[in-house]
């Protein structure tokens, strides 16, 4: 969900009530509940957050807008991110000079080029950041941690 003040990322899992709120001015990230999302927010589906990047115009949020299932590891779906959107935290570009606008445009073009290349894979239930051998040699406590905690 997008409002002029915040981005709200809502999980689609059954029973999930938490919503990630990202303040577009302070860049502060907090957890809130679905009821806090204003009804006026523009809503659209995303499949994940790739991250943030700071360019000349300010901070941008990079989200995955399309995915394709490419396989499974131990019944865990592995997805390839196939399309992205780059969302500006700033509402306008009026604070930039013509040269800064041009530089920002070039950087966005370079970023779009990198995102168009193959190689962005993810799983919401399996740790792709460690090899199977390394995972087999980790402690039970590590394996019980959420992917976020790892």
From TrEMBL:
Residue spans crossing the bilayer: 46-64
GO cellular component: endoplasmic reticulum
Reaction catalyzed: a 1,2-diacyl-sn-glycero-3-phospho-(1D-myo-inositol-3-phosphate) + H2O = a 1,2-diacyl-sn-glycero-3-phospho-(1D-myo-inositol) + phosphate; a 1,2-diacyl-sn-glycero-3-phospho-(1D-myo-inositol 4-phosphate) + H2O = a 1,2-diacyl-sn-glycero-3-phospho-(1D-myo-inositol) + phosphate
Gene Ontology MF terms in the entry: phosphatidylinositol-3-phosphate phosphatase activity; phosphatidylinositol-4-phosphate phosphatase activity
Superkingdom classification of source: Eukaryota
Database matches in Pfam families: Syja_N
E.C. code: 3.1.3.64
Single Gene Ontology BP annotation: phosphatidylinositol dephosphorylation
Keyword match Transmembrane: yes
Keyword Lipoprotein: no
Residue span, SAC domain: 47-140
InterPro entries per record: SAC_dom (IPR002013)
Alphabetical UniProt keywords: Membrane, Transmembrane, Transmembrane helix
UniProt enzyme class: hydrolase
Coiled coil: none
Name by which UniProt lists this protein: Phosphatidylinositol-3-phosphatase SAC1
Gene (name only): Sacm1l_2
């Amino acid at each position: 969900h997008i409002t002029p003040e915040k981005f709200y990322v809502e999980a689609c899992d059954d029973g999930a009530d938490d919503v990630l709120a990202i303040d577009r001015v302070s860049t502060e990230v907090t957890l809130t509940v679905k009821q806090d999302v204003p009804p006026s927010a523009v809503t659209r589906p995303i499949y994940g957050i790739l991250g943030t990047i700071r360019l000349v115009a300010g901070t941008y949020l990079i989200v995955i807008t399309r995915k394709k299932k490419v396989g499974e590891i131990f019944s865990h779906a592995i997805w390839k991110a196939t399309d992205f959107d780059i969302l500006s935290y700033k509402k306008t570009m009026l604070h930039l000079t013509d040269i800064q606008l041009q530089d920002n445009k070039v950087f966005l073009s370079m970023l779009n080029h990198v995102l168009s290349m193959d190689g962005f894979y993810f799983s919401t239930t399996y740790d792709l950041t460690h090899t199977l051998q390394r995972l087999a040699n980790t402690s039970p406590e590590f394996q019980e941690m959420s992917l976020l905690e790892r």
